[in-house]
Amino acid sequence: MKHLVGCTVTLENDVTTVKIPKSAKQDLDEVISLNRTMIAWATDVNLSADSHLVCEENDGFYTTQVLARGASRKATGASFIIVDGGLKTDGLQMFEKKRFRQFLCLQISVVEDGVAIRVPSEKLESLLASLNSMQDWSTSGSSGAQFIISWIDICPQTSTHGPTSSIDGLNLADKYQYGLSLDRAISSVLQVPSVSDYGVRLSHVYDLRNGRLTPDEEPKVFSIAEMLARECTGMLEPYLMMLINMNIMSISVRVSVNAENVEYDVSPWFGMEDEQLKYKQNMDQLIPVFYDILGYLPGGFYIELTLSFVCTKPLPFIN
To answer: Where is the Smad anchor for receptor activation-like C-terminal domain (predicted)?
Structure first.
């Protein structure tokens, strides 16, 4: 199930609200392209809610529990959402409410640690049109239940969990991470000529700006990250074995480039502070390269990449 970073679900009384950051539009388009009659995606933990749905498995049977912070519970988060357009309205019993007769057009139910929404097919088409144009959308049922989709500019919450930068402790949980397909990660080991048993792998690339890169920018920024990984690995040669012997098995490099200035930083090398300073000074030779990149990517970039040191010794043959 596709995960939409920054998206949250809140169940509060009879109202189910889904908030989607505009930066997740590209991922949502991918979800919709797979199946237009039923869409589903995983969401973030809702930090603003005072409780959260959890699923417990026991001997093959699944039960839903609510994990609450305190005794009172007003808003509950969920881990995923399903919207199904298969709700049939023809022949359904009609309900009397305040002298108005309404068809049942919305069903909301809890499924494990997520929420399932069922609406008629025409309602789903209306929802899909709104999602495509990034417009807020809502519908109501005859029982008073409401389902609301709301677009937000940026992710409103910052998790205290997840990856953090080894440079300054910046939380990276809500930053987009690129290029980590398994095949690409395995094939990205860079060799250092004087170190035969270890290589350097570009293991993480984070975009530190808010939101997500455009489809045109994404491959360009990652190709820049791969170029930086090669240059940074070449400058690591005098220090690589010392770092490994100090049990420092990865370093992070942060680079910000725009038309006004170039900034870069490297994670601390504890016990090797002088060597780390020399390494940062050696990066000055990349400044002309950084400015040349603006011709390739006029908007510049702001990324943090992690270079991990991996053993390249062949596994022993077992007969």
So the answer is: 1-290
* Contacts for 83 with CB less than 8 Å, ≥ 6 apart: 38, 39, 40, 117, 119, 124, 127
Are 144 and 248 members of one domain? no
| 171 part of a folded domain | no
Name the residue range of residue 32's domain.
8-152
Together in a domain, 214 and 288? yes
Overall number of domains in the chain = 2
Note whether 49 and 148 are same-domain residues: yes
The count of other CB atoms within 10 Å of the CB of residue 14 is 13
Question: What region does 225 belong to: left with phi over 0, alpha with psi -120 to 50, or beta?
Answer: alpha
Specify if 163 maps to a domain.
no
**CATH of residue 295:** 3.30.500
